[in-house]
């Protein structure tokens, strides 16, 4: 069953919000967790490569573990979602809820340790956040909003420059692709600013937004609920 225009807009809003969350946690990871990207794995691979070369005392362990955690979580989420239908399904809600719970736990840890966390704890926090982002990336693929991966904007930027701006009639794609780039940028700005108060604050914001997407998506976009309503 195809989504209505309103439902498509809600799905787009949900993925834009999750993209914003990626920007927030990436700012936290890079600025407060030993320069580890928790959502942008391209950045981690580059940092890892330069770190292995011994450049500028860049970290190796943190990016490597974050990469592993992201990949493992994406693998598990892919297996979970593979059996379900395309679009928002109850498995999407479950994965986002687990992500929100993990972010809430990280918020609690951040409240307790504050800015005094040691290297080992920083790596663990970055890895847990990266796992949430890996699962979220697969959720975005399942929901299926074009050009909204929530964790990668490099390909979106290339599409914006190389396809949208070179063709006529690309208004919808222009707005969507630009929205993805703007969302992750705004999230990074917000994350950096919120860190000035306390490391727990951006984690709390990420928790609240992920929870809101899970609840509203389940209530308004769940395929089971939509089918039940249409059958009445």
UniProtKB/TrEMBL annotation:
The chain crosses the membrane at residues 12-33, 60-81, 93-114, 120-139, 178-197, 203-222. Keywords: Membrane, Transmembrane, Transmembrane helix. InterPro entries: DUF1275. Pfam families: DUF1275. PANTHER family: SLR0142 PROTEIN, UPF0700 TRANSMEMBRANE PROTEIN YOAK. This is DUF1275 family protein. The lineage of its organism: Bacteria, Bacillati, Actinomycetota, Actinomycetes, Mycobacteriales.
